[in-house]
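Re: the request from the purification team.
They wanted to know what the chain is likely to look like in 3D before they choose a buffer screen. I agreed to run a prediction and write the result into the notebook, where they can find it.
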Amino acid sequence: MKKHKSVKIKLGTLILMIFSAIFGFSNSLTAYYQMGYSSIIWYVVTAILFFLPSALIFAEYGASFKGVKGGIFSWLQKSTNEKVAFVGTFIWLAAWVVWLVSSTQFFLISVSTTLFGRDTTQSWHLGFLSSTQLLGVLEVLFLVIVTFCAAKGVDKIAAVDKIGGIFTLLIAVGFMVVSIFVFFLDHGHLAEPLTAMNLTHSPNPAFQSPIAVISFIVYALFAYGGLETTAGVIDSVDKPEKTFPKALILAMLAMTGLYVVNILMCGISANWNTQLGSKGINLGNVEYVLINNLGVVTGHGLGLSHSASLAMGSAFSRFAGLADVLAGIAAAFLMVYSPIKSFIEGCDQRLLPDKLIKLNKHNMPERAMWLQAIIVSIIILFISFGGNAAGQFYTILMDMMNVSSAAPYLFLIGAYPFFRMKKNVEHPLSFIHGKAKIWTVTTIVWLVVAIVSKPIGIIFTCIEPLLTGDYSTSFWTAIGPVAFGIIAYVYYTWREHKEKQAV
């Protein structure tokens, strides 16, 4: 039998994979819509207090456990114990499964914008299928195709993610370059004046209270979310002890810089009150509204007719949609594989059924990936064909994901001091020195995630429906992540008990 040739991911490809998993160009535009220029402050603050230390901590994990196949499962296991690793990774995996449900929907909106210049998905229908039902079928089809292709090997995932990363960078850099061009065409005039007031005060009436500002911090925090997902491919990285930490740090610096610069660029062509203060603009379409506006302003700056300027705006929107399509495909390829791979390959084989952990000829956990695809497809179809009750179920799922998405950071960051105290673990990288500094950094970052994301997330996703009388949504949103943890704990305890009986 021919031995499968291992694929080694180089530095450039890994950086692009990290970009595909984390960086969202639309995050900058959404931030401008929510907070204007003042969003810059909170993006920088979250980068300093969360993203930078997290990247350094994960880089240390990656350098020390360069040969492991289980990603964050192995990190947790080798830093604490197997039970903690099993519970923490299971909660994390459950959150990403729910993420797959929502991401397929946004992917189709990007496809529509690419084809038609705007979101037309609500008018799609085929035969007896309504718009919602047809979208559900298309989402399942997309997931099946992605799973089928991703199961062909990590080299396929790396290739797709590289393309997605390139287009993600292109749209971000392109937006910046065109905006600077408009800046010079307008002789240095800014559509949104850059003043001390604008840097500290949101023009959006909905984001001017302290509570609303805190909610935006949660949003900014998770604009950097997904850093841990790339751990699932570390065993395929060339010279991981050097390449992985370098890629994390370089990607972190580049992403923070791009977020800040692109927020500033929004103000060159878009006055908040004029372009974004009207009805019909929301978080789902603001990216394409701003891109379209940039195209129109560029056309006017070049002296083109109004109709030609409108056509340029439509062309800009289509390109943005195409970039989002490719970035969405890239993210889907990584997400159908990396989280479940970390869980399946990280677990001791005794904990899971043999058929589930079996790898195919491409060294991929194909059966586990298809089981995941089936679960996600059932949820999508239930939501699409289930009516109002299913709609409420979808809301609960998304709220549960928002609350439980902090789990990997709480576990990984909390385990960091114990990881550094391990005498039997090599530490080729040590960014933080001294026991006092290690505990201080760990405590600060852990509290940022725990206090900001967890309680605030619970307030906004759990308490809000409670106040409106929606007790069911409030209860399941709060209990969902806890339930995931309990299921994992009970299952692990049952397997332990079963093993002791067999001895």
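For the purification team: The first helix runs from residue 11 to 22.
Please add any questions underneath this entry.
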